[in-house]
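Attaching the record inline, Q. Sequence:
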Amino acid sequence: MADVEVASEQVEEAEASEQEEEAEASSEEEDDEEEVEPSLKYERSIKSDLRDRIFPHTKISIISVHEKFIVLGDINGQVFLLDHSGNIIRQINAHRGPVTCISIDTTGEYIATCSRYDPNVIIK
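Structure, as predicted:
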């Protein structure tokens, strides 16, 4: 009878040990899932050769972004309309001095620019 009790205790200890190991394994899996952080991917939205096409000749004084395009104004009064890939859609000789303000209507149909060095407000 004593042998049966010893065997019974050994079975119970083995079951308890298995349950503890399963709980630890489950806890480690949960910790692994919690510790995984998403990796961030960075990609330039404007082509690097944009600097070679526009910036060697001028410096940008202002930028305005719309969901459809980007508008840059430079210190020479030029206004550049770009797509989000950095391709020039349009270039406008707008002012005699640095472009100091750009405003885009919500639809993206009209762009207004001004410079403190001339009295003109340009709307395109």
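The CA atoms of residues 67 and 99 lie 21 Å apart. Helices lie at 2-35, 50-53.

More tomorrow.
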